[in-house]
Amino acid sequence: MEATAERGDFANQHLLNPVLLRLLGDVRGRRVLDAGCGNGYFSRMLAGRGAEVTGIEPAESLISFAREKSTEVSYVRAELARLPELEPFDAVVCGMVLTAIPGWKPAMRACVEAVRPGGLFVFAITHSAFEELSGIWRKYGEYRQKEHLAEYEIAGRDASGFHRPISAYLTEVAAPGCRLREVVEPGLDPAVADGIESYLRMPNFLLVSAETACPLSP
């Protein structure tokens, strides 16, 4: 956790953080929820940019570490699908969480409901068309996938992930009336690639920005 406490790991630093920050825009004075904040590094980045940040994380070890690192962020231990009663946020960001949990639909729904009307919901997931990109590319010199349309669990070294079609996430975020603003498939800058050819040619991540529905005028 200490090694990634400032800006996250390599993928966070070079593929995810720059896009997430751009999609969120100017956060000065805005209330932002970091849903599934992990060790809290991104919450602290947002607070450093002037946001009023709440970080939600269910793991005790991660939330304890995050609290030790900063008193500027309000860190709360809770499940995403059962968020505590909080004032609506101007923006909710959910980075690399939805593809890691089985109950992703209630978690996404809770995130959307936590945003004020007209606010932003931004999320990042592993790109389901290129989930095991680096390992498969190293083995074959290209990317191979046998199944995309089904939903299934992917066993990992530390924890399992879950494959779902891209359409599942886009349909779910659109269901409550959210308006898609941008979908991003980031590629790695050649200046920092250092021989990682797969990330130059294929996107390992998918990021989505959506605007929550405003109430209809009477």
Topology, please?
Blueprint: H1 10-24, E1 31-35, H2 41-48, E2 52-56, H3 60-69, E3 74-76, E4 89-95, H4 104-113, E5 115-126, H5 133-140, E6 152-154, E7 161-163, H6 166-174, E8 179-184, H7 190-193, H8 197-201, E9 205-211
Parallel strand pairs: 1-2, 1-4, 2-3, 4-5
Antiparallel strand pairs: 5-9, 6-7, 8-9
On the 0 to 100 scale, the average pLDDT is 94
The strand line-up of the biggest sheet is 3-2-1-4-5-9-8
Helix content: 25-40%
What is the ordering of alpha helices and beta strands?
HEHEHEEHEHEEHEHHE
- Name the poorly predicted regions: none
User: Treating each run of at least 4 consecutive H or I residues as one helix, how many helices?
Assistant: 8
Tell me what portion of residues adopts beta-strand conformation.
15-25%
Sheet with the most strands, sense and barrel status: 7 strands, mixed
State the CATH architecture. 3-Layer(aba) Sandwich
End-to-end distance, in Å? 50 Å
The CATH first-level class comes to: Alpha Beta
User: For the CA atoms, what is the radius of gyration?
Assistant: 17 Å
Number of strands: 9
Which structural category do the helix and sheet elements fall into?
A: alpha/beta
Q: What is the CATH topology? A: Rossmann fold
> How many domains, as an integer?
1
Protein name: Class I SAM-dependent methyltransferase
Domain Methyltransferase type: 33-123
Keywords: Methyltransferase, S-adenosyl-L-methionine, Transferase
GO molecular function, one term: methyltransferase activity
